[in-house]
Amino acid sequence: MNMTIAEAVGVVRALRDPLGGIGGITRVVCPPFVALSAVAGELAGTEIHVGAQNMHSEPRGAFTGEVSGSMLDGLCQYVIVGHSERRHIFGETNEFINRKVRAALDIGLTPIFCLGETLVDREAGRAPDVCRDQLTEGLAGVAPDDFARVVVAYEPVWAIGTGRAATPELAQEIMGALRYELACLSHVDVAARVPLLYGGSVTGDNVASFAEQRDIDGALVGGASLSPEQFVAIASTIADVRASSL
User: Fold this and answer.
1) In this structure, what DSSP letter does residue 87 have?
2) 217 close to 197: Cβ distance less than 8 angstroms
3) What is the pLDDT of residues 72-91, one digit of tens each?
4) What DSSP element (H or E) covers 232?
5) Would the pTM count as exceeding 0.90?
């Protein structure tokens, strides 16, 4: 919940050309609902995609203040679902998030499906089980072949906005387990095509160490995305790491 429409447009104008010049990766900008139309207009004709920060699972109805997937038609190609703040501030359950994932897929949006453990879960040794449960319950009812239409973002709740990023090795441990679980639920070839993003105090200074991990394909950028320079630096670093690993 940052930036007015004018501020969002200013940020997008500042990052549009340098971000557009970075090849080899998918780039997505997710502004608040009120700025979606303006941002989409600024990015029209570029290879930078637009995403929404949330959506409701129902196509319409008496849900005052909510935004449905059909309302997003033509404005964006991606939508974030299950973000930790939606889970822990607004009480969204795995079942509700699953309905959002399926609704997004049904209308042709790519869900950026977020999951991750709390500090209590981490300290109790439950992190792998919690993340696997969120993954399997969040993808329930999705055809295994459609898993590759989903982006999965691992965001340890205790590392979001705290400046306390998980270590690359810890993130790889969880994300490797998620990749394995995806393969068990579908097929190893399908699981290999699911983009896995790390989110949690990602910056231009630490993103390379995450991007170098085998099962981390990119980043879900939070606070650093408010700075065009930081966002471009993060994207550029990921592109460089991926290029060097090919």
Assistant:
1) H
2) yes
3) 999 999 999 999 999 999 99
4) helix 228-245
5) yes
3-class state of residue 25 by DSSP: coil
CA angle centred on 51, ends 97 and 149, rounded to 5°: 60
What domains sit in the chain, N to C, each tagged with a CATH number?
5-54+66-245 (3.20.20.70)
137-154: pLDDT as tens digits: 999 999 999 999 999 999
3-state class (DSSP) for residue 167: coil
Catalytic option among 42, 92, 117, 155: 155
* DSSP E strand stretches across 24-150: 28-29, 49-52, 78-81, 110-115
- Among candidate residues 83, 92, 117, 181, the one labeled active-site is 83
Report whether 48 contacts 19 (CB < 8 A).
yes
Strands (E), the chain: 28-29, 49-52, 78-81, 110-115, 151-154, 196-198, 218-219
Pairing relationship of beta strands 196-198 and 151-154 according to DSSP bridges: parallel
Residue 205: C-alpha distances to residues 18, 137, 155 (Å):
18, 34, 18
Phi, psi of 3 (to 5 degrees): 80, 140
C-alpha span between 29 and 220 (Å, rounded):
10
Catalytic annotation on 83?
Answer: yes
